[in-house]
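Hey team,

Filing this mostly as a record. A colleague (T.K.) asked me to run one chain through the structure pipeline before their review meeting, and I want the input and output archived in the tracker in case anyone asks later how it was produced. No errors, nothing strange. Just documentation.

Input sequence:
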Amino acid sequence: MAKTLRDHLFDTIRELGESDMKAFKDKLNNFQPKPGYNHIKWGELEKADAVAITRLLVNYYKEDYVVEVARKVLEDMDKKNLAHNLFQATGKAPGGTQQTPAPTSSTRTRVTGVAAPMLMEYRPGSSRAGDSGDKIDLR
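Output structure:
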């Protein structure tokens, strides 16, 4: 079964050690979300474990904004590697837009025997309308 966004978020939060978990909660408590969203109160975060924090994040920020919130909090903690891994795993770009994750070595395909498109084409003495025999930029 494929992992859900919530699964990836939980895995990321679980990777934080005890002291980093406290820092994450503190940064999250002080995070100023975009208009239309509320920040999570300290009373809800103080004793929360990774499961509860994941639940709170998804409930407060929904799937369209939660990855961006977690990314910003992790980056504020200088945990850019975890933020990057979360983005890669979920394919969520900043702003909540869906991105196709960069191909990995297992998804890259080698193409051979295919001619690359020419960017410039020369048509000397062409009689077609608009062709003056000059170079045409095909970009």
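Quick notes for T.K.: The chain has five helices and two strands. Residues 44 and 56 are 8 Å apart (CA to CA).
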